[in-house]
Design goal:
The chain is mostly beta strands. Helices cover 0% and strands 55% of the residues. The chain has an eight-stranded antiparallel β-barrel. Strand 8 (116-118) and strand 9 form a beta hairpin. The chain is globular. The two termini are 16 Å apart.
Length: 166
């Protein structure tokens, strides 16, 4: 399955104030993720540093992430697309991200948590659900993971990257 059902996930993002200009998510981010998983019936976990490029326009958001999962994935990005929707007054935004192209065949759905915008900084956290039978080094074994992301924006310049077909 190339895509997960996008209607499954809602997210809550805090950071705007009533009457304020909407916060742009566009930029480059640095952060970490922590995962717990079951691979072929064996439980485990891990954490990694990763970076992300984000382009946000209106209600659409495109994301490219880089993380070293295995030597086979080094330098290869994963691509996501999603939608954001602000509440009246802009205090909360809801939406989702969905993986569309990865370093290998997998499914992933991302729910973003409250974002913080203070001064020039912007950060957010997210939960993901990841499933694959093609994880490098564990091919043919069912991998089911739950991960937590934490990302802080390091640049507001619009990055260039391939986006998911829409």
């Amino acid at each position: 399955m190339k895509y997960l059902n996008a209607t499954v996930v809602l997210l809550a993002l805090f950071g705007g104030t009533a009457g304020a200009e909407p916060v742009s998510w566009t930029g480059t981010y640095e952060g970490h993720f922590v995962c717990d998983h079951v691979i072929g019936g064996t439980a485990g976990g891990f954490s990694r540093s990763f970076s992300a490029h984000v382009r946000h326009s209106g209600t659409s958001i495109d994301v490219e992430t880089f993380a070293l999962i295995s030597p086979e994935t080094k330098g290869k990005p994963s691509l996501y697309y999603g939608k954001l929707q602000e509440t009246a007054g802009g205090a909360v935004t809801s939406g989702y991200l969905e993986a569309c192209k990865g370093r290998f065949d997998y499914k992933e759905l991302v729910r973003i948590f409250p974002a913080s915008s203070s001064g020039g900084s912007f950060s957010f956290a997210a939960d993901t659900i990841f499933v694959s039978e093609a994880l490098p080094g564990a091919e043919g074994k069912l991998v089911a993971e739950s991960c937590k992301w934490a990302l802080k924006r390091t640049s507001t310049e619009a990055p260039e990257f391939e986006t998911c077909p829409k």
